[in-house]
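User: I'm new to structure prediction. If I give you an amino acid sequence, what do you actually give back? Let's try with this one:
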Amino acid sequence: MSIVARQVFWSIGFATIIALAIATAFIIVFPLASWSELWNQQLMDIPFVIFIPSFSIALGILLGIFSGVFWRRQFQEVEFSLSQLEQGRQAGAAEKKAAITEMLGINERVNRIAKQMSEQAKLSQRLATEKVEDQEARIQEIISQERNRLARELHDSVSQQLFAASMMMSAINETKQHTEESVEGRQLKIVEEMIHQSQLEMRALLLHLRPVALKNKTLKEGMEELLIELSQKVTMEIKWKVEDFPLDKGVEDHLFRILQESVSNTLRHSKATTLEVLLVKRDHFAILRIVDDGVGFEVEGRKAGSYGMQNMYERAGEVGGTLKVISVKDKGTRLEVKVPVTFNGDGGND
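Assistant: Good question. You get back a string of structure tokens that encode the predicted 3D arrangement of the chain. For your 350 residues, that looks like this:
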């Protein structure tokens, strides 16, 4: 039952009880010679015995509608504030005072909760920044050196051999086009596709092994360098739009690592032909969006069973953001990260 209907119901009941109480008191004080007088006496050409309950019900309906609409507006204001809070937006103070003290108290509490959540997001980002700086100071140099060594050895050996095998298989298939429909031709084609997939797997592995820190680069510079290098090594069409705006170092590092993880997953699993990357700032949010046209996957199953997906969700949460993944079978996958842009702990903007 809605608040308006409930208020109307209670108002009609209350008005009826009041009318009966007044009528009873009146009859006790001024006894009737005959009960028929209640029907014979008229008010506005309506018998008194009908006028009193009708007037009471009508008055109850009007009062119920008025009070119901009033309370519905009060609850709608609270619901709007809570929805803003749920979306990660600042609820803000009410433009005018609430009609009753209790609703004013609720509005003040909602505003305090919004401020506390904003402070917690700032604190999370500050802690992420401090954590990244501390880790880089202690172990980044060792990790980077080892990653570079492994990546260099894999690139100079396995990756080059896979490339040579791919070229040889392409040449063999071109010289045996007339046997394409034969068992041998199909098998050679399968081998060529396996080698091609192995190359993608190797590039994804090299992407993981390369130094993941931005070091002295901005997020825009690091993303563009990564995507340009990737577009030169894979046949996939890669498009990107990256805006340049200031972010805390911890936020930049986490967004860059989420991009690396997502691109690696695309190379290894999606079988996509196009990849689009977008980084923009809208309404005090940094938005990173990665879209491919691959085979898609079951989002819930991958989230529960994949370390990479779980790692991306955790990274987004560490900087006060959210990560949403939408994937449709044979239609592709869309990954979007939204992080609130706030003033950092060092007094920098945004």
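You can read the tokens as a compact description of the fold. Here is one thing that stands out. Residues 345-350 have pLDDT under 50 and may be disordered.
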